[in-house]
Amino acid sequence: MFENISNHLFNQEELKQVEYHISKYPKKMSAVMPVLWMIQEKFGWISIDSMKYVGELLELPYEHVLGVATFYTMYFKKPVGKYHLQICTNVSCMLCGGDKLFKYVSDKLGIKNKEVTSDGIFSIEEVECLGSCGTAPMLQVNNKEYYENLTLPQVDELLDRFRAEASKN
Prior knowledge:
Elements: H1 12-23, H2 32-43, H3 48-58, H4 62-71, E1 83-88, H5 91-95, H6 98-109, E2 122-127, E3 139-141, E4 145-147, H7 152-168
Parallel strand pairs: 1-2
Antiparallel strand pairs: 1-3, 3-4
Helix pairs in contact: 2-3, 3-4
């Protein structure tokens, strides 16, 4: 199905997964989000070249893929750290200290919103809502792990643990 695609970012197994995503929808273009997610899961972020590749796979203009990738904050358009920390500062989290938590982590790591530490271990992002209003403040790590009802000492423990894990790899 994808014989004429110029740059093969996906292997045959991944292309089968793309075909599966396409098969779930009445139009190919509807598979753009899961295919972008596949790119991000594989490479950690979504480059311009990979957006063009997704456009070729789904027979979409690059501009359409770019529009989707830039509209949704879940897609990273530049490299992030090995541990990407998303800290909610929306109303519930803010009232429970989410903004203070963000500032504390930002100061501790020496980076600002959407920046990466010089060693590449951490990046930080202020986000609107992670759906954990009753257990605020909270942060999400790598779009997978939730840490709720956080205190500053708990954050210190998490950062130390992540740093130790990163040094093992």
